[in-house]
Protein 1
Amino acid sequence: MKQLRERYDLKPLVIHTNYLINLATTTEVFLKKSIEAFRGEMERALALCADYLVLHPGSFRGADRERGLTQTAAAIAAASRGLDLAGGRLRILIENTAGAEYSLGASFEQVAELIDRLRDHVPIGACVDTCHTHVAGYDIVTEQGFHDTLEKLDATIGLANIPVWHCNDAKAERGSRLDRHQHVGKGNIGLTPFRRLLNHPRLAEAAFIAETPIDQPGDDRRNVATLKRLVSVRSPQVQSLRSRR
Ligand SMILES: [Zn+2]
């Protein structure tokens, strides 16, 4: 893995935890299994020398939000007990969610609160998904909305705590809370917000990942190519890539 990463200049390495993990669950047996599964994800991420492990904060059906948050923080702390994440340079990233009923983390404030509660237990940050942000109700489409939403992000989670972004267009309307990813530029977000995001001077160090649908073979490559085309050629990152070639 290390050799291949060097050969293909793959960095950072970001792993997504499996979607069955729900650390906010009120069912005891699911909680036990979720903690075990999440610990397994961390062990494998450490073995692979991954940089980030992305986690959805889960769903608290049957309890209240406060208990969901408290339990999630406690479960992450319990799952990571005895693992040297800092020494392995592995950081857990909490992803903002679409905000379906009972799900945690649809507001930037909730993600920020989880991060605050976990800071003493694990190296922690956030991963922001553009589709989830849009359907959770934040405006990233208009120029003013994009600016305001980024300011809100900075005031809550802090842009410096967001090393990874998921660049997905949205099939659903803003505020619909429906998590349906769409090809970049083909949904309700459109190309312009992605151009603003990819060229934002304060996000020059961030990694951008497409989690778009694969309806036809090659859709993944086409979405990444679309994102690359949006990066301004004047950006210092692209220039340095070019000069390296
Ligand atoms: Zn995502």
Protein 2
Amino acid sequence: MIPKTAIEKEISALSASLKPVTAQMNCWAEQHIFLKWAVLSRGKFHCLECAHSWKPDSESQSCQKYIACTACKGRLKMHQYNQVHFKEIEYFAVTDACQGYQVVRIICSHKNMKKNFLPDYSHTEVMQHWINPKGEVRTTSRSTNVFSQAYDAWKYYSPLEIRPKDFQNSPKYRINPYKVYPNLKVIALLKRNGFKTSLHGIAPQILFTALLKDPIAETLLKSSQKSLLSHYLNFHEQHLRENWQAVKTCLKNRYKIQDIKIWEDYIALLRWFKKDLGSPALVCPENLDEAHDRLVAKKRDIQRKKHLANMRAEIQQAEPIYKQDKKQFLGLSFTDKDLTVKVLDRVQDFLHEGDTLHHCVFTNEYFKKKDSLILSAQIENRPIETIELSLSKMEIIQCRGLRNKATKHHSRILRIINKNLPEIAKRLKKPKKQTAIA
Ligand SMILES: [Zn+2]
């Protein structure tokens, strides 16, 4: 993009005037940002760091994830597959201060490895984040290959160009370098706002802009709430703002949150119980897990009770309708020795039937089905199977026992019902005649 505004022109010119990343910095990166590798090839270990190769001592050694080089003593990670070329790509950053701007330079480094050769490195500065004292940022970057699946397939020979303001929404902007070159150069304002030397695992451009424009970030850093700070800057800004009162209580009491996710959950529970989020005794529990679990259990208990009350109300409402719908069948029962098949007389009985046999006759509101008659086959008053009968077709739709399985009484139950279908049909006709007369 061609610089148009005064700021874009200024940053483009300053960027061109920056001294290149030094050989010393690159050398530091080569030592610090990459893993060391080994590979097993034709029965021999090859150190891809010093080109040494040797025979394993034992069979089991070849299955290890890491191995020590017998020559350079490096701790080597084993490559899973043997191939000709091996490659590792990492980012590092260099910080700089230039004409009042805080600059974060992002370098993409390649380590190319081959058996029997020393590794070969290349380093390309791919982005510069220019942050002004107000925490506003503009980035210059190289182009990326838009046809690549990776968002950071850099075109290494394209120039560093100023990017539009919305570059901050690009995943490239949030690239967090694996390490930052020591001897950080930072503007005085950042130091005043609490920055010392540690980035706490946060991408420098994210931490710096936040420290310059956002008092919350500054407060969190100054009170060394590091896990809160990184949580806040990692897309959870909204959560922290919502819980700000509780966060303030933690800050005031120097309470260190062990596990942010659990704590946020816990605060949500406190809020549900309408508790005071200014009370340190509540907001800063000594044993967070225990306090959290206790509230979860308490809430579940309340919800269960509420659910039961709702169910009771629902049953009460459904009861008269069911009685009216099925009045001609109520009290109907057929007995064969120890086995009784009877019509469910109340909606309450559906609940009992469903609870005993673990099926959905109550949950799915079979008592509301106009064309179905539900019967229970029982031995010694205990439900064995539940039967659904179609009234219009006068046939059994289903007959199921515990967890919807058939029991050993199944065929006997079917026989009893089929034998008594005429009795049921007889009752079905009566009210129809009445309505016909009416
Ligand atoms: Zn070695």
Protein 3
Amino acid sequence: MAPGESTPEKTAPQPLYLVQRLVNSVDLETGEDELGSPPALHDWLVERGLLAAGEPVTEADLDRVRDVREGLRAVLLANNGLPFDDQKIERLDQAVSRADVRVRFRPGEDPKLVPDARGVDGAVARLMAIVAAAVQQGHWDRLKACPREECEWAFYDRSKNRSGRWCQMEVCGNLEKARAFRERRRAATA
Ligand SMILES: [Zn+2]
């Protein structure tokens, strides 16, 4: 799947979609990456209202955002029942350590979590506040990553019992079934 959007039934509601969209900014199968350079990351974040146009983006920012992206993918795989990748989660934890959030109070509004950092750290903080809100609202575990190793595409599971497993049953589900079949046959003839 080329980096980008998902079909509507696999798309998370806003603002959680921003998190899904970050994870899907690279196609692991082809290596095509929307965040290929600091300027590309800058434009990607500005386009989504996560960064002010004048804010700089460095190589280190890009490394950090990629750690966030792959760490989130590891969490989404765990949401799909796969074991935690401790190393990736640790790097995620480190990458978000400067992305501070605070509670903001405004008359006539519910208190809410907002970024308390600038630049790319502020953008990451905004995404983390979205994750925290989704956890609290009880739909974080619907955001999953496809367990087919070459795919790991992020999708939103709208099924009633939250049992959705594949980004696309017709593609990854069938490829995995074929692989399992080949492996069983190999094991039987061995
Ligand atoms: Zn898939």
Protein 4
Amino acid sequence: MAQFEERKVGRWTVRIDRLICVGFGDCIDEAGSWFELDEEGIATFRPTSSGDENALLEACRSCPVDALSVYDPEGGRLVP
Ligand code: SF4
């Protein structure tokens, strides 16, 4: 699988850096409707990811190794 996985969520672009992710699962504790661990123990988007977008933002902020980033439509970085 590619290093980066991206998903458009409203106006945001959410990116998982799969090389940085260490699989602690904090993001899943915060927003299990958006993220899950794949068979390699690395975070990935749920196929039907959806839910509270603020919870998604908090989940991205909770990543201890900054593997999750969020960008606005102009490419400005909201998280981390
Ligand atoms: S919180 Fe960060 S390190 Fe932990 S599983 Fe999620 S993306 Fe990976």
